[in-house]
């Protein structure tokens, strides 16, 4: 779990700035796993599986004649992702949908592009293709600061990113080749897979993927399960947007839907509502502090939501989320 300060999250790169899913502990039902295996496969309903690895959770659907995959984690583990899918089916993988552009959800795209159509919101393609320029514009300053602070891990990440940005050719970036602005549907056998763009929340290119017959929805990073969400304001994200985005989903899915979060364990609508409530409570705390005449500095110094202290990332990311909530409560509502 690492994050640079401004978190530009440029993200075609192996070291994403957002929360990595915790390494799963081996489970007794997978006797053949190697001890250092990063993967854990969980069958859900209707041919849909959740695949935990390193980075954003993967979901995939095995249909009568094709496989549809949601997100691709990182380049270095992409061969393992394919092997995990192959462990349950030899049907062709025809579509890969990216929930958003971050590197822990799109880093493995390259491994799919020769056989799968990569699909995402318009903004995902744009942000992936502009990432080398953004790295070259923003990272050198970050690198200086990381060197000054003696943060070896950040120095390495930034140096690698800059080296990559200098040499990558735009056509080498495995960005989505089918993009959309609002919604699309993928029809595979008897399953209809709906892809909905939501109001900007985690980024401005967020989509959720709803497997309508299986009754499973992949939320991407609109849902961090029992974790403080990372809100990528520099990529158009917004705390208030989280509420609008989650509300759009709540209005359209059945109450018993199974929910795959972007990070953390598979969950349900109660879990998703709890994640929404965190954002509600955070915005409310900022409003209360404003009403009491506090400055942003005073608010951040005192900000604490005890009910959420057990959330993963509370220590590292809570103040960052609080600062965003403060900035977004300057105006009503
Ligand atoms: Zn993300």
Keywords:
single chain, 333 residues, alpha/beta, 7-stranded mixed β-sheet, 5-stranded mixed β-sheet, 12 strands, disordered N terminus, binds zinc ion
Notes on the structure:
The protein has 333 residues and is α/β, with parallel strands linked by helices. The protein contains 9 helices and 12 strands. The protein has helices spanning 78-86, 103-106, 109-112, 122-149, 152-167, 239-250, 269-291, 296-302, 314-328, and strands at 40-43, 48-52, 58-62, 67-70, 93-97, 117-121, 178-180, 183-188, 191-197, 207-211, 216-218, 258-260. The chain has a 7-stranded mixed β-sheet. A 5-stranded mixed β-sheet has the order 8-9-10-11-12, covered by helices on one side. Helix 1 links the parallel strand 4 (67-70) and strand 5. Helix 4 (122-149) packs across helix 5 (152-167). The longest helix has 28 residues, at 122-149. The protein is globular and about 60 Å long. The model is unreliable at 1-33 (pLDDT under 50). Bound molecules: zinc ion. Zinc ion binds at residues 18, 100, 102, 105, 202, 221.
């Amino acid at each position: 779990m690492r994050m640079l300060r401004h978190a530009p999250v440029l993200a075609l790169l192996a070291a994403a700035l957002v929360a990595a899913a915790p390494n799963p502990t081996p489970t007794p039902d997978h006797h053949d796993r190697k001890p250092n295996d990063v993967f854990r496969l969980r069958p859900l309903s209707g041919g849909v599986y959740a695949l935990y690895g390193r980075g954003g959770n993967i979901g995939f659907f095995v249909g009568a004649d094709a496989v549809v995959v949601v997100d691709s984690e990182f380049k270095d583990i992409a061969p393992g992702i394919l092997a995990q899918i192959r462990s349950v089916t030899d049907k062709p993988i025809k579509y890969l949908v990216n929930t958003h552009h971050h590197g822990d959800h799109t880093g493995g795209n390259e491994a799919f592009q020769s056989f799968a159509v990569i699909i995402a919101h318009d903004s995902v393609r744009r942000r992936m293709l502009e990432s080398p320029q953004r790295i070259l514009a923003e990272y050198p300053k970050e690198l200086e600061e990381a060197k000054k602070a003696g943060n070896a891990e950040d120095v390495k990440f930034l140096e690698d990113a800059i080296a990559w940005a200098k040499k990558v050719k735009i056509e080498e970036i495995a960005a989505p080749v089918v993009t959309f602005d609002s919604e699309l549907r993928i029809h595979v056998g008897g399953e209809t897979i709906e892809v909905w763009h939501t109001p900007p929340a985690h980024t401005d290119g967020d989509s959720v993927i709803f497997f309508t017959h299986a009754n499973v929805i992949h939320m991407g990073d609109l849902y961090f399960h029992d974790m403080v969400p990372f809100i990528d304001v520099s990529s158009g994200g917004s705390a208030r947007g989280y509420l609008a985005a989650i509300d759009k989903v709540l209005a359209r899915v059945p109450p018993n839907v199974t929910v795959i979060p972007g990070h953390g364990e598979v969950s349900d609508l109660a879990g998703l509502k709890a994640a929404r409530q965190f954002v509600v409570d955070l915005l409310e705390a900022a409003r209360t502090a404003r009403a009491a005449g506090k400055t942003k500095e005073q608010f951040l110094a005192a900000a604490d939501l005890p009910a959420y202290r057990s959330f993963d990332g509370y220590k590292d990311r809570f103040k960052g989320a609080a600062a965003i909530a403060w900035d977004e409560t300057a105006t009503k509502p």
